[in-house]
Amino acid sequence: MQENENSQEPEKAEWDEQRRWKGPVRLLTALFLMLIIIMMTVPYYSIRMDPEPGRIMKLEEVQMLLSDKSGNETYAGGKSIARMVDADDPQIKLIADRIASSACGSEDVCQAKALFYFVRDELDYVSDPNAYEYVKPPALSIISGGGDCDDASVLLASLLEAVGIETRFAFVPGHVFVQARIPKALKRYRYEEDWVNLDPACSSCGFGEISYSVAKKEMTFAG
Hints:
This protein has helices spanning 2-49, 59-63, 90-103, 108-122, 138-144, 149-162, 212-215, and strands spanning 124-125, 146-147, 167-172, 175-181, 190-192, 195-198, 220-222. It is α+β, with helices and mostly antiparallel strands.
């Protein structure tokens, strides 16, 4: 009997050792599985909440969509810049749809980003004449491939309005940019309520950003 008890002692010790390690192993396995689930879930919801556009069309590709290469009548001064927005122009609608759908699909936050990136990155900054303020219709800005902050803002507002995104103009001394009403945009992008700053003439400004020199000035709005 004593011999049997002695033979069982190593087995019992081995069993106790296994039990001692089983708890931590289970805990580590559970933590590992939770980490995998978090790593799979967070990017998914990040993409859904803050979608980024795919390839943005180049200026040359967009110019090819314009049937009238001569452009519309130009306009210089004396008229509210908000009245220069032309979202009803069939060519502007076509261009807005192509840029937005090719980069994003149906997500409006992504579409707003795609249209903003297009105007910001594809239009070169070209100043007005010294004698007066000169504002081009949106289609002419695409044809020319350049313009100042007024031209870029009119073009961007026209493209955004053409895909159903409400806009207004934000004015500071010597500068104008666009604000778009995008309720689905993340809070960090919004200036106030649902309005998102979009400055297409600022090459270093991202979606929802304006430069420090602009931000510290008093703004007025029209739209």
